[in-house]
Amino acid sequence: MSEAVSRVVEALYEDIVLGVFPLGSRLVEEPLVQRYDVKRHVLREAFAQLEEMSFVVRVPNRGVVVHEPSPREIRELYEFRVLIESHAASCIPLPAPKVVTQALRKVQTAYSEALKAKDFRRVLHLNNEFHRTLYSACENRTLTSAIEEYAARTHLIAAMKYFDDSIMARTEAQHYELIAAMEGRDRERLVSLVVGHFSLNQVDRYDAMYRHRHRLASNAG
Questions:
Q1: Residue 122's domain spans which residues?
Q2: Is residue 217 part of a domain?
Q3: Contact (CB, 8 A) for 54 and 67
Q4: pLDDT, tens digit (0-9, with 9 covering 90-100), for 110-160
Q5: Disulfide check for 194: which of 21, 58, 89, 124 has CB 3.0–4.6 Å away?
């Protein structure tokens, strides 16, 4: 992937996750070419990459559209994430290497600062870095790669949480608890915290919003 394509993929990823382009919305080439200051062929290559990531889909007579996963798809993704991430937590040596826990504390300090400033683009990337660092301690590259891939696929519905102060405060507190567990020897607690870090309430909220949107669309039709 060229540097130009990578830049556009990253920018579109951020804009989709943060709700600039809502689920189901059409991605029109001309405004995006101007927004990201790129050539059309670069934008189309970025679309292809995002399609592989399940972030966009090509719809006949509409073009490229932000993927709107079904509630069942999201629930299954979360169930799979719980399975693989709890397994990864069970493989991490405890106490975790100091280089890992020190890196986690450094990332989390920056995360808290970005959250306080409501710099959600930075929060998004620091959150990804936090989890990438945490699971790197399990020393299974295939597993950590799968965790990163499937986490990204659930980021499609992340826009719901970034503007909910209570959810973000809880996430911040959970990160510090995870670090403390990584520094200790209680594996059961670490696994429990990893599982508890998943908000199934968020899945339920998405389910309700999805049904509401499609009921309105059906009535309008």
A1: 71-210
A2: no
A3: yes
A4: 999 999 999 999 999 999 999 999 999 998 999 999 999 999 998 988 877
A5: 89
